Batch of 3 targets.
Target 1
Amino acid sequence: MATIDPYRPEDERQITAMYRRVFGADATEGNRLRWDWQYRRNPNCPPEGPTIWVAREGPTIIGQYAAMPVRVAVQGQEIYGSWGMDVMVAPERQRQGVGEALFRTWEQHVGAALGLGLSESSYRLFQKLRWPNVGPVPCFVKPLTRRALRRPNWPMPINRFVSWATLPLVRIVARARPLKAGIERVGRFGEEYTALWERLAPKFTLAVRRDARYLNWKYCEAPHVRYNAAALKRGGETQGYAVYRHVQEARGRVTLLVDFLADPDDAAGIETLLGWVDREAKAANSDKIRTFCLHGAFGRALKHAGYFQVKSTMEFTAKINAVEVPPSFFQDTSGWHVTLGDSDQDR
């Protein structure tokens, strides 16, 4: 049987070699670029070091479960949790229970165990262990040009026909709307964002703590992705923010609305943030905007702003260990705030 214990600095060489065997050279290089930022420089990293569990057989490492620690607001209480990620088992030891043992070790040592963007094998494991099934995080898309509805797996004649047929609708949805509050670009997140979080945290039944330290680490210091951010301002007070970036995909350019925060009851403020992202997306020649959002009020605001809900592939699961929650907590997730920026889905 494998022994499972915490990561040690001298493990790095073996883990890198196993990562290359499991995921390939390109993924290994990407992991090397972001590893120190993602694990060691995380503002929630515990004093003993990164939250990584390692499976060993004698001197040989045969598996790893790495997690991203966060502080989580759960029904008015703040607890320590972590996002599970970068799970791997040596090819010759797969399907022998090593991954499940790593997973159980992680889950037993965390107040809130969170999983986002689950692989098929991870999803099956969660089902086997009878974790609460909260389903995928809804995906919303706003078309901006006639190319927005093209699909890489469709022949070009079909894509052209769809573009022609939907153009009148796209023009209506993408029309410019006036901003109802002030917007300022953000270079760094100051302490006013910590105050914003403290003010809005009671509005959510579950959400990762989004204070200034976390936001700067996640969106200003990431070495592998460059983000843009904008703040919602009224009377000199910060009342919300949006984080976004522009990417090139197979059939066009996309603006990703990665994360946002505002009072769920502030319809005009949310509309202003979304309107700003619209303008930024058009200036970047994007064909559409895509975002993921679990919160019910935010989802309704997105639809009001011209977004359509489409099939989501971002499965989500959560298990709360540190505080008692009723079964209904997992059945009604309309007060949960989860976005694409949570975990490590946006790479």
Note: The CA atoms of residues 87 and 122 lie 9 Å apart.
Target 2
Amino acid sequence: MLHRLHNELKLPVYCVLDNDPWGYYIYSVIKQGSINLAFESQRMAIPDVRYLGLRSVDLERCKLSDDVKITLNDNDRKRAKQIAAYPWFAKKREWQREIQKMLQNDFKLEVESLMSKDISYVTEEYVPARLADQDWLD
């Protein structure tokens, strides 16, 4: 559906996902397709998608409370290292910095943590500011 909305209606696609290895993986599947569904990837991938989701700097940048930090577990750390080694991520300096910063912080953030600021913070402040500043990862 996203692929059709983007290609047929020429709508931009932005992903607002968690700051964790699983959010990064979901983004990569939308951007380049699934390794497991390689035969479908070209038909489903959206190479122009942008990652607008939470980043490792957002705890400070958004002035979030330490209460929203979720400590990385061994599976998170292992998955982050696997993702950093994926050919697509390995070629992207910004993504390498992002993954390393998350590992260095040793915590992850969920999109829901932004609601600790205000119920409408995501739609009224976070996303509009990121779009206006073109502050996304590609």
Note: The chain has eight helices and four strands.
Target 3
Amino acid sequence: MARIVHSLDDALAPIADGCMLAVPRETTGVAMAATRALIRHGLKRLHLVALPTSTLQADLLIGAGCIDTLETSAVSLGEFGPAPRFTAAILAGSIHMRDATCPALHAQFQAAEKGVPFMPLRGLIGSDLMTHRADWKIIDNPFGNNDPIVLLPALKPDVVLFHAPMADRAGNVFVGTQRELFAMAHAAQKTIVTVAKLHDGDLLADPILAAGTLPGFYVETVAVEPRGAWPLPLPDHYGIDAAHMSEYARLAATPDGFADYLQRYVHERRAA
């Protein structure tokens, strides 16, 4: 059963050097306050899996030297331009990139969620991805005739980390319509969640909220972090901080500018 902890540092204790850490896409609920705390902790050699894409979160962690392997289908700042620290790392060869596609990553999490070793998927044969992913196997469909199909291994992260609108005091977490968070929590060894607030009552007993609630027995720790996704959005609660994202894109374009950003917005622990 989930533990409600009083400090973000306590909540993040299960995330250690070298672990496989899975995080959701920008518009699902990204734990950015927790991400800044991980950088302050000086974590190294993380295998980051972003389902299925990432923006500021991956770029920050890469620039801060936390990432050894990145597994995702894309990293960019969207309308704010390319992800500068990701781009620099790829050009320098300083991280190991495991290219994927959005459907492939979802299928791999679904395999782990179902407790099966792999998931079949179409649409990959003929792409150059198959030449770079030795762990993706092509077999003949045993129920078809000359019908090759790709098998993708289950992805079982050590830890899943995300931000959500609220949790109750039993650790049940309301994620609303962000259904991929269920699959991620089901697939992971441990799930850590930051929430905007605690709900007085049982979310699973609420006929309106229960369907969008992740039961607490899938959750390791919960910490309250108001506006914990900032400067990224939290669906149905607040939007992206466009001015901050523009500032990040400008500063992170150079190593010195990125170091200045870390000092001002990560190490000084400014409020959102």
Note: The first helix runs from residue 8 to 11.
